[in-house]
Amino acid sequence: MKLKQLTVCITVLTLFVGLVSCGDGTDNTSSQAEYSSAAGMSSTDESPTEEISSVDAYGSLREGELEDILAAIYAAAEDTEEIQLNHRYLETTEIDPDDCFYYFGVESLDFEEGIASEYSVGGAYSLCLIRAKSLDDVDELKRIIAENADPWKWFCTGVDEDKIVVDNIGDVIILIMYEKSELLHDIFLDLAGTD
Predict the structure, then answer these.
(1) What is the mean pLDDT of residues 84-110?
(2) How many CB atoms within 10 Å of residue 75?
(3) How much is the pLDDT for 130?
(4) What does the alpha-carbon distance between residue 118 and residue 70 come to, in Å, rounded to a whole number?
(5) Which DSSP helix (H) or strand (E) runs through 177?
(6) Are 52 and 72 in contact (CB under 8 A)?
(7) Nearest-CA neighbor of 22 among 155, 126, 161?
(8) Where are the domains of the chain?
């Protein structure tokens, strides 16, 4: 009898996890605090958009910690009705340059630092930011990422290949895989006042 109950519990749990993992991950009811916490900021932090408004002489986003850049993107996305991200389930993870296959489709990349924002459960969505060691490395890093990133890396969902965006502002490279990637791309470019 106990074995039968255990089997039923495992089956129900497996079905629940499968349904959650295959959800569409959309919800447009998030607050500013959720946007900030998804990017690793507390709700009492100043808006990072003011700090990240230009590219300096070295091609770097001025005072742009990657977490601040991510928070600025999400803060601007809050004003865009077409972007529907469920920030309750977004997690920000540091990317190890020597172990980045899941994010970029290659075992290693030579970059200074990197972070990824993805759903902890369900939904085909990935926004990765990396800082190149040098401006001379940017084009090669972008080429490698564009050629290898897998838009179908998730358990049971993905995005079309034309929804992959790889671009940069100075030494900061962004990878977006999302059905509305062009909108997030525009927000990223606006951080430096470029089109």
Answers:
(1) 93
(2) 18
(3) 97
(4) 12
(5) strand 172-177
(6) yes
(7) 155
(8) 24-190
